[in-house]
Specification:
Layout lengths: L4 E6 L6 H11 L4 E2 L3 E2 L14 E2 L2 H9 L3 E7 L2 E6 H9 L3 E5 L2 H10 L4 E6 L3 H11 L4 H16 L6 E4 L3 H13 L5
Parallel strand pairs: 1-7, 1-8, 2-7, 3-4, 8-9
Antiparallel strand pairs: 3-6, 5-6
Helix pairs in contact: 1-7, 5-6
Bound molecules: guanosine-5'-monophosphate (5GP).
Length: 187
Amino acid sequence: MGLGRLIVLTGPSGVGKGTLLRSLLKRHPELYLSISVTTRAPRPSEVDGQHYYFVTRTQFERMVANNELLEWAEFAGNCYGTPREPVENQIAQGKWVILEIELEGARQIRRTFPEALRMFILPPSLGELEYRIRNRAQDSEDAIAQRLQRARAEVEAADEFDIQIVNDEFEAALNRIEAALFTPVNV
Ligand code: 5GP
């Protein structure tokens, strides 16, 4: 059995992380995607236990108090966190575990799991990102404004990550993520 590994994928809202990740998992079903808990309301297409575990703020706070979350953060008025146990179990079994999380959570992981590989997905430009966030039309105007503001701050922190990948052309970006994960590094 191989060695377990933690991989963090971060990037501003609307950059296309989710779509890249779904394609990556299709190509590599051996990868394990952590399912987060969130206090955000489900979007129409989202399924509890598949996209997220949707919880109340009280439930979320209890999980934090019981140290059940590996990391957590507030984002655009809601809380998001990574359940600790499944991630630790999968890594102990030699699996590669992917966390798709925002910047604050990624910073926490850098402190608690310094050996994790941390990748940042960048948009081709901030203008393009704004277009994508608005075009998604899934969120209220207020949430869109919060997401845009946060997106700018996140993009500025891209250098904190081990690898930066620009999502300019989908297939090329996917190939770059794949190469970062699976190309052996000569040391
Ligand atoms: P969304 O509401 O668009 O699904 O997610 C908003 C942001 O929260 C995204 O940047 C996503 O990566 C991040 N996120 C999702 N799950 C987690 C988590 O468990 N922890 C942290 N820190 N961020 C998360």
